[in-house]
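Input sequence (359 aa), recorded before submission:
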Amino acid sequence: MKKYIYILTVTTVSIFMTSCGSEDKKASTDNTPAINVQVSQVSEANNSPFLSVSGKIQSVNSADLSTRMMGYVTKVHVNVGDKVSKGQLLVSINNTDLQAKRAQVEAGIIEATAAFNNAQKDYNRFKSLFENNSASQKELDDIKTNFEMAKARLEGAKQIKNEVNAQFTYSNITSPFAGVVTSKTVKEGDMANPGQPLISVEAPGHFEVMAMIPETEISEINNHVQVDVLVKAINKTLKGKVSEVSTSAKNTGGQYLVKITLDKTDANILSGMFVTVQFPVEKQLDTEIVLIPTDVLVTNGQLSGVYTVSQSNTALLRWLRLGRTYGNQVEVLSGLSADEAYIISSDGKIFNGAKISIQ
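Predicted structure, token format:
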């Protein structure tokens, strides 16, 4: 009987194993279920021929109250949302050292007052003696000098008392006008530092809009121009008038600040609401603004991106260059065009290259 011996080279075995591994891996990949996702089309801002910009409502009368002294907060007398009257006490700061200093000053005033009264009596007596030729001119001059010095010391002590009393106003923070407390950044026991905002107060009823105008359009904006202001939160259009136009963009990133005073209205508007301001001037540049919701963004350090859908129905992470924020949406300067869709939600965790199924 003939015996046949089959010899397989290492290369053949390797090719066979590699082929099998690839087929197994391919089969495994193909069997992975697709992740169900929902997509949305890129939205564009209103393409009106008139200039429209984003802005924010703020109160005409608002104040961030702070102190000029360092000390522990002993009492916060109000909460956010409380209505306050002019001069009402809002925050108390420990002023034990000021009380000690005021006691010293008052003791100094008592001493200076006694010295002044005594010097005044001496001056009046020597003045009478001089008139009766019972005292020399030098004696009268010396007494008069002592009297003037005592008077100056008393006045200096009184001014120090005024300074101490002024410092007490910074240990008791009061409201500069009638309004509503909008923020509170300290609580009892916190250390208050000079210049640190403690309480914010706004006067309700009078509002204005702060808007940023591109450099290509700012030359068309003039004071006292009537504008339409769309309040997105309540879907109402209000009337306003341009009250201030900035002539410098040095500190505003190439955009020019414009302030619009709103007409009085019964609409339920609040400070901080986002608006769209439409000016009665034609846009110089006909550009489309691409907007996406901020909650779909994927961040990695300084990078921001969004998952899109590739031609092979897989998730594709696209890094973006972002611009200004419009409420809950952000402007996309590059990385996403108006004819593309992006993923807004998924049934599972998606990653770059994951198989997806659009619902």
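Checked by second reader. DSSP finds three helices and 23 strands in the chain.
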